[in-house]
Amino acid sequence: MEEEPTPARPPWGSWLKAVAGFVAPTTLLTGLLLYFGFAYSSSFYGYFGIDLATLGLSTQDLLLHSAAGLYMPLAVALAAGLVGAVGLAWISSLGDARPGLVRRLGHVGVGLIGCGGALFVLGMLGGFQVWPAGPLDTPLLFGGGLLLVVYGRTVHLKTTGHPVPGELKALVIVVAMVALGCFWAVQAYAQTHGRDDGRELAGHLWHRPTVVVDTAERLYFGPVPVKETSLPAGGPAQKFKYRYRGLRLLAQSGNRMFLIPDGWSRTRGIVMLVPADGSVRVAFRPR
After folding, report:
1. Helix boundaries (H) for the chain
2. How many angstroms separate the CA atoms of 79 and 49, rounded?
3. What is the mean pLDDT of residues 11-40?
4. What gap in Å lies between CA 265 and CA 247, rounded to an integer?
5. Which of 31, 100, 210, 259 has a CA positioned 20 to 30 A from the CA of residue 173?
6. In Å, what is the CA distance from 281 to each residue of 126, 214, 222, 284?
7. Rounded to 5 degrees, what angle do the CA atoms 267, 272, 277 make?
8. Residue 133: which H helix or E strand, with range?
9. pLDDT tens-digit series, residues 96-116
10. Which candidate, 97, 57, 73, 63, places its Cα nearest to that of 188?
11. 135 exposed, middle or buried (CB, 10 Å; 0-12, 13-18, 19+)?
């Protein structure tokens, strides 16, 4: 009896598999960058009293802003990964040449597990407001403690070679919790960094472009040094009556400009939303 020929795989099957393997991580990475960019931008503009939904930033803007909150966390993570990899490689190179040192390193691994467990418990207590944890304290203690537990167990396993039954399942759960802690920490860092950058810009507004605005109606910016000048009448065609100096362009999104006066602070002055259309006339000047 002749065997039925195996149906041939579609020629595009391998391509679909490759594309799916590329698209899924790329989509996840893009989503994370958008989230971190949202966290940074929301804190940055929130310092000036602007809701991010009002600003209406585009997806590209959020992706660009995400870089500001990722440089330091990525640098720290890569540096920690390099140190950990070098340490494990050094332990593996010892082999049976120095059994006394290997045995002591096994005790170091147990100590790391204990320290990591203590940090994890401290982070959990901070999350439940048992002690006044800061926005970065809880995720760093939570994720960093678990990471020390994993690394300490890896060191101990390399020095003893005795795995614990069922350890792999527990390790998968711990790694997932470490990833959660890292995500939480980066999000908290992006928010803190955005708020700090907003505070820094508020004290150095000369970094933003200078704007001169002509309007048909009088504007009010509060008790800040914005200079108002009445424009000379130029006939019926002259619809602009007032000129305002001492303003900076804080942000622009679409056909809206957010102007902030020199001398602005959180207790005095406001941020003015001005449409970038024919109702106003805007001129930019060098800083």
Report:
1. 13-46, 52-55, 59-66, 71-94, 99-127, 137-160, 167-202
2. 36
3. 65
4. 13
5. 31
6. 53, 5, 21, 10
7. 175
8. none
9. 777 788 888 888 999 999 999
10. 73
11. middle
Cα distance between residue 76 and residue 1, in whole Å: 66
* Six token digits for residue 180: 């959660």
Q: What is the pLDDT of residue 237?
A: 61
26, two tokens: 């790329």
Q: What is the pLDDT of residues 231-276, one digit of tens each?
A: 887 665 678 899 999 999 999 888 889 999 998 988 888 899 998 8
From CA 261, how far away is CA 116, in angstroms rounded?
Answer: 49
CA 258 vs CA 124, 226, 278: distances in Å: 41, 15, 16
CB 245 within 8 A of CB 212: yes
